[in-house]
Amino acid sequence: MPSSQPTAGHLAVKPEYLSSQPSPMAKASEPNRSKSYDPKKPHITETPITRANWYKHVNWLNVTLIVGVPLFGCISAIWTPLRLKTAIFAVVYYFFTGLGITAGYHRLWAHTAYSAGLPLRIFLAAVGGGAVEGSVRWWARDHRAHHRYTDTDKDPYSVRKGLLYSHFGWMLMKQNPKRIGRTDISDLNEDPVVVLQHRHYLKVVILMGLIFPTVVAGLGWGDWWGGYIYAGILRIFFVQQATFCVNSLAHWLGDQPFDDRNSPRDHVITALVTLGEGYHNFHHEFPSDYRNAIEWHQYDPTKWFIWTCKQLGLAYDLKQFKANEIEKGRVQQLQKKLDQKRAKLDWGVPLDQLPVMEWDDYVDQAKNGRALIAVAGVVHDVSNFVKDHPGGKAMISSGIGKDATAMFNGGVYMHSNAAHNLLSTMRVGVIRGGCEVEIWKRSQMAAKGEILQSADGERIIRAGSQPTKIVQNSESAGAA
Ligand SMILES: [Zn+2]
Ligand SMILES: [Zn+2]
Fold first, then answer.
1. One domain, residues 299 and 430
2. From the CA of 284, how far away is ligand 1's center (Å)?
């Protein structure tokens, strides 16, 4: 990162840095590259799916692991009695293997939201392996691409391709390695725990996914087969489906309190299903924060686990964005929503688009029967409103053809904010002379940005700031 901000005419990064960056294309020597993969040959995903070739598009290994094995587990469960001890152990082990993914794969390795000592890293890599969702290295690489290229074609599990695709369709079908956005994982390649887990991944999966839960239930209370089916296979199925929800449900269900330009959303149901990963709109805005839920009452057991590890001296450097930064995002999103609502309302013709009238012309037109009233140099046609005026017809008619600024602003009656808003919808012109200076001063303020403008360039009118509202000088008001 450059130590200072680039100025105009300067590149943000030095050209030497750019040329030293690796090519976005994967090298054939990369360890997670399938041996049969040849970057020169067209990939199967480049040919359309037909009746003759559909099976070539399917990733059969993943279909076996994600659909076939759980199906076998479900069927076997019919004949396998579920013992209480096995059930409790399966739930506990479900949480630990889930935390391996959320606290380990996701927050520690993909986002480096905190640092962990060797014992915790070994523990997370082991139980995370027991969730059977690929190695840390593979998972974190894809997840970094997901954050970097959210909702684009380079996002490995873009929800724009459908909810089921983002859930597990992306794993059941073959993916073109050239399509997935490249990310830097050099830090992961330097972590011996990650490298070792990647190298011996299959052994880790069999040991932590199946052997360990079978042995615990078998040696513990003699339930070998129950341990294998419930704490092994079916527990893997539930952990997989739960954590897959981070890619599907968290991009589909809920609110967007921080930014609505992309799909991530916050929802308590997603949080309940995913061990606290459900505040996903926050997470995509502040990915390196060790928390997903920032309020104490929101459900984020992954955060509680990391915090507990810190108290035990197993984790350190927990990253947290400042409340000021988080609030800025929240307020900007609120403002955006407000602007969108505001844009749907009629605020009257902007002053600078109104025709300029001479004072004499204004008086003449009023005399000739047009119900025109000038307030603060702005001319309003109140013809259709005279009969509805809450203060009576006589009162409003007495202002026609005159400068009603003082009358309107407290001389006769201090009109409400709503009255100023309503008046603005009746604008038909501005007067040259009179309060002219006041109006042009205001339009200049707008040009200088002193009057707030919404994102689409429309002027934002705060309560009490219609140009017809003349703010009284408190000193002279007090003296009067
Ligand atoms: Zn996401
Ligand atoms: Zn993430």
1. no
2. 6
**Inside any domain, residue 123:** yes
Q: What is the largest CA-CA distance in the chain?
A: 104
Going 165 to 37 to 210 to 304, the CA torsion angle's sign is negative
The alpha carbon of residue 182 and the mean position of all alpha carbons in its chain are separated, in whole angstroms, by 21
Do 262 and 402 belong together in one domain?
A: no
pLDDT tens-place values along the chain, 480 residues long? 333 444 444 444 454 544 444 444 444 444 444 556 666 777 777 778 888 888 888 989 889 888 998 999 999 999 999 999 999 999 999 999 999 999 999 999 999 999 999 999 999 999 999 999 999 999 999 999 999 999 998 998 899 999 999 998 898 988 887 888 888 999 999 999 999 999 999 999 999 999 999 999 999 999 999 999 999 999 999 999 999 999 999 999 999 999 999 999 999 999 999 999 999 999 999 999 999 999 999 999 999 999 999 999 999 999 999 999 999 999 999 988 988 888 888 888 888 888 998 898 999 999 998 999 999 889 999 999 999 999 899 989 999 999 998 889 888 888 888 999 999 999 999 988 655 445 555 556 555 555 555 555 556 676 767 778 776 654 444 443
Q: Nearest bound ligand to CA 251?
A: 1
Q: Does any domain span residue 298? A: yes
**Residues, the chain, total?**
480
How far away, in angstroms, is 263 Cα from ligand 1 center? Answer: 8
- Which strands form 427-432's sheet, in the order they lie side by side? 356-358, 427-432, 378-381, 372-375
Ligand nearest to the CA of 106: 2
Measure 106 CA to ligand 2 centroid, in angstroms: 6
Residue 426 belongs to domain spanning: 351-471
Q: How far is the CA of 305 from the centre of ligand 1 (A)?
A: 21
In a domain, 341, yes or no: no
144 Cα: distance to centroid of ligand 2 (angstroms): 7
Assess whether 146 and 175 both reside in one domain.
yes
Q: What are phi and psi of 347, to 5 degrees?
A: -105, 10
Pairing mode of beta strands 427-432, 356-358: parallel
